[in-house]
Amino acid sequence: MRKQQKIGYTLVGAAVLLLLLGSIGFTTTGEINDIPTPNAPERTFFADEPLPENALTTFISATVTLTWDRDDIYVVIADEDEKKRCEAEPPGLFNAGTTTACGPYDADVLAGGTNGEEGLTWDVESGVHYAGIGTVDKQNPPMGFEVNMSYSVHLQAGFVAYFLFALLGIGGLAYTRIE
After folding, report:
1. How confident is the model at residue 9 (pLDDT cuts 50, 70, 90)?
2. 111-118: long-range contacts, CB 8 A cutoff, minimum separation 24
3. Structure confidence at residue 141 (pLDDT)
4. What is the domain-level CATH number for residue 45?
5. Which domain holds residue 60?
6. Which residues pair with 45 in a beta bridge?
7. What is the pLDDT of residue 101?
8. How many domains does the chain divide into?
9. What's the Cα-to-Cα distance from 17 to each of 129, 158, 173, rounded to whole Å?
10. CA-CA distance, 66 to 59, in Å (whole number)?
11. Is residue 167 part of a domain?
């Protein structure tokens, strides 16, 4: 076997391996405990700090799954503009029980969930995003003052990464043909 063939087939093998690993992906999990919960109905309280950004969105796709241990609160993920709009609204302007503004059913919220066991799933997008929590039941106070959340982040190759892997394989095949 010639040197060009060895190098070319090595590139093809590396491309196939990267395609497989990119398809399988990587998952990391964790827990956040003792998060204070709001006691005001019809109000979403957002975190002061934004969620970590996915700077490599074109190369890596990320999916976040979030679950929590209580059913009397909801969790939302919103972009920076929606957070500012929600925080600017005075609580008295919301209609008791008839509005979906700034809650889990708001059309401008990127992801939302009211059931802690089912949680929410969000495909991470580029940009600045914030997580917020609020009380589901408007008649009864919350069942406690803290909530525990579990998260799972699944990373896998994005479209551009697959394209680059394919180019690597095609380049390897072409290199095997050089004399």
Report:
1. very high
2. 111/76, 111/77, 112/74, 112/75, 112/76, 112/77, 113/66, 113/74, 113/75, 113/76, 114/71, 114/74, 115/71, 116/67, 116/68, 116/69, 116/70, 116/71, 116/73, 116/147, 117/67, 117/71, 118/67
3. 62
4. 2.60.120
5. 27-157
6. 133
7. 66
8. 1
9. 33, 15, 15
10. 23
11. no
- pLDDT tens digits, 65-121: 999 988 888 888 888 888 888 877 766 555 454 455 677 777 788 888 888 888 899
- Asked, for residue 7, whether it belongs to a domain, the answer is no
| Residues 80 and 129 sit within 8 Å (Cβ to Cβ) | yes
Give the position of tokens 């525990």.
148
> How are strands ordered across the β-sheet holding 129-135?
45-46, 129-135, 73-79, 111-113
The verdict on residue 102 lying in a domain is yes
For residues 156 and 27, the answer to whether their CB atoms sit within 8 Å is no
Q: Does residue 1 lie in a domain region?
A: no
Residue 29: band (very low, low, confident or very high) from pLDDT cuts 50, 70, 90: very high
**113, two tokens:** 């969930």
Is there a contact between 103 and 76 (Cβ–Cβ < 8 Å)? yes
Q: For residues 34 and 49, what is the distance between their CA atoms, to the nearest angstrom?
A: 17
Looking up tokens 């391996």 gives 17
Q: What is the pTM of this model?
A: 0.77
What is the pLDDT at residue 167?
A: 94
Q: What pLDDT shows up at residue 98?
A: 46
